Amino acid sequence: MHEPPTIRVFNDFSLTLLLADSAQAIGGKLFVLGAGWNLRSTQPTPCAIAAIVAVPWTETNRKHSLQITLIDGNGRQFPPAASGAPPLVISSEFEVGRQPGLPPGIRINVPIAINLGPLQLPAGQFEWRAILDGKGRDDWRLPFTVLAAPAQGAQA
User: Fold this and answer.
1) Quick check: 60 and 106 in contact, CB under 8 A?
2) In CATH, what number is assigned to the domain containing residue 127?
3) Which of 61, 31, 46, 52 is nearest to 112 (CA)?
């Protein structure tokens, strides 16, 4: 005699992040172009953050906040306060409801696309750091490196 399958209950958020050239969130799906890079040059380059937030059953029908901040290689917000420019921080709120008949205990995905346009950054190490409802995790980071452009006339 077969027993019914056990439904795994997820009580915490999951967040998947990708660096890309472009992204769109349409109809509950995430469309991503040029994803997966972690090296770029100092030249202005298109940049997008593609994200999927998996919301636990117990957190549906509530507002949630997502904040993604650019951090430099020294662990500080970028650009630095001394530059006079505000730090690059993206803030958003979202809410997802439960569809009728959905079994309890599952997560519901929320796709998010953030297109930043061409960014020009100095050479160095950076990361996008995500905070969800005031909490962050080590795996909610997107590290990348900006490489200095080769000197004019340099040969490979």
Assistant:
1) no
2) 2.60.40.2550
3) 52
SS (H, E, C) 97-113: CCCCCCCCCCCEEEEEE
**Which range marks the domain in which residue 46 is found?**
14-147
- Two tokens at 35? 């994803």
At position 49, the amino acid (one-letter code) is I
Separation between Cα atoms, residue 107 and residue 44, nearest integer Å? 37
113 is a domain residue: yes
CB 41 within 8 A of CB 147: yes
The count of domains in the chain is 1
pTM of the full predicted structure? 0.86
- Cα–Cα distances in angstroms (integers) from residue 122 to residues 72, 89, 113, 145, in the given order: 10, 18, 24, 10
Q: Is 85 part of a structural domain of the chain? A: yes
Q: Is the pLDDT of residue 11 over 70?
A: no
The whole-number pLDDT of residue 100 equals 87
